[in-house]
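Hey L., structure's done. Input below.
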Amino acid sequence: MKITPLLKENITEILRKQLLSLRKDKLVRISPERILAEELGVSRLLLRTSLKILIEESLLIQKQGSGTYITPIAEISTIQLINAPDIRTDDPFFTAFLAELSCWISREAIQLSIIEFHRIKETFGDVPLIIVGLLSTDTIAKIRSVYKQIVAVQCYPDTEDISQIYFDDYKIGYMAAKKLLDYNHKRILHLSGPAKYPSAFYRKKGFFDALSDADVYITEIPGKMNWSSGYQAGYSVIKDFSVGENPTGIFTANDWMAIGLMQKLTEAGIKIPQDISIIGCDDIPLAKEVVPALTTFKMDFKYLIGELISLLNEEHIKGRDVYKKVLLSAPFIKRESLRKI
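Output:
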């Protein structure tokens, strides 16, 4: 069936009205594409076109392997956000998170303010607070004395009295190791990030746990989670190539490290993935633009925001004593930087 602009527009509007009527204070899963197309009497191709429009509008969220969900209605009118002191304004996680959150609150007409620690006031108590990054125990204690609703977009392993939502970094590391094993890699390297960051710590732990019983040679190069650190690590990898002890598969703590490493190896004439395979993490926009495109794990910020708003709604309705830890999966994205040997 040929898709005409008018028909596409009509189906999208019909879907939009139906979905808006079904929205609740939490994520609501809709019927699979096949069933939905039959109910509407349209082709799955046309349906996908309309769904894509509604996903771009943030009315829908697609979670790989789980289905499509209607975003929740907010039970709140104002949100405040505080960043950890070491988070830069150009941090890829923060910028992606803030962009998606800003899109959502703009559509929902919710007021968002980013505050600094010294500006916290007792009068903020009834306003929900989102924490991005890792704050000290003393800072968390002061925040808890002021705010009734707190959700940290970060893992706080030693804190039980605030809600937390974060990607399952242990599983990311574990899956990265299993993928390298599945692709027959026996000499494996991990470019690790600072252990003070839970994301780097748990990615490393999952990675090494998955390889603990495998018959492989494993090495580690610690560094900072940035392009320069990956580039500098390339010198050590190149040295290993010169003596025939090079790794054949590498997992890096994030994509920026991977891309820096790829740059240095390419300058040295080492081919990816013919000579070495690389897996990153985060799926930053540049990951699919570099040559070869980077195999990685995708952080779905639309789904993160949907779960975050659902959690804020639940705390708003049930009160302060509701504390949850929500782990989000990060789908594996296979691209050209990984090959079987």
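Residues 5-70 form a domain with the Arc Repressor Mutant, subunit A fold (CATH 1.10.10.10). The chain has three domains: 5-70, 78-167+300-329, 169-298.

-- N.
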